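hey so i finaly got around to running the thing on Proteasome subunit beta from Streptomyces bambusae. pasting the sequence first so u can double check i didnt mess up the copy paste, my clipboard has been acting weird all day
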Amino acid sequence: MEANTFSTGRLPAAFLTPGSSSFMDFLASHSPDLLPGNRKLPEGIVEAPHGTTIVAATFPGGVVLAGDRRATMGNMIAQRDIEKVFPADEYSAVGIAGTAGLAVEMVKLFQLELEHFEKVEGATLSLEGKANRLSTMIRSNLGMAMQGLAVVPLFAGWDEGKEKGRIFSYDVTGGRSEEHGYAATGSGSIFARGSMKKLYREDLSEEQATTLVVQALYDAADDDSATGGPDLARRIFPIVTVITDEGFRRLTEEESSELARKVTDRRLEQPDGPRAALL
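ok and heres what it spat out for the 3d tokens, dont ask me to read them lol
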């Protein structure tokens, strides 16, 4: 029997009809106008705040995902303390680079997508499945991306089946690639990746991995004006998260500030950072 949508206290029929375990499919069927990709595209190129650099690195037992705090609009700093790294669910996280408003909205939709699947199916998606769902969401934003409103996230999590941390990167078309060891996205990614390339080792401890990503963000900020380094005066520090078999954990303000201060103090002695061995 179809639900009475005109009476108060009753759910609309759409909520009582069996369907897909995908929340995006549900919206596409019943409220397609709520999907970001179905909205009317703005005319011309739109200036909007952009998030910049996100980095990630694996270590035995997990993966670290971190981001700087700066958002820019052209050559201006739009926000100094934006948050770019969010938990997707208990065992995964996503860091955003690109148009900040659309990126945050996409993250919220992604969180709902994973929660909806778990409630409908009674089980969680595999990490591979989560990465694929995010790819589909990015692809649906292609129209916006072609007008300069791109969202290019970095996805990381703990794979319970393979018992290790994994990293996935994307392009604006939704193309997905698994990264091994470390990865970076955003305007400062070329400098962050170069930094990690010389410092990364497969046997890093969790503490060393968190130090590595902060070093990489520092190097990115040193060469990329859109990336913000640790701001000791305003007490604004990178967001650093760790995902292991125990789940998602974000470093506390005290932990991230102490880590950032150690890196900054060391840079007073070696402005260009740690030296990698020649051989």
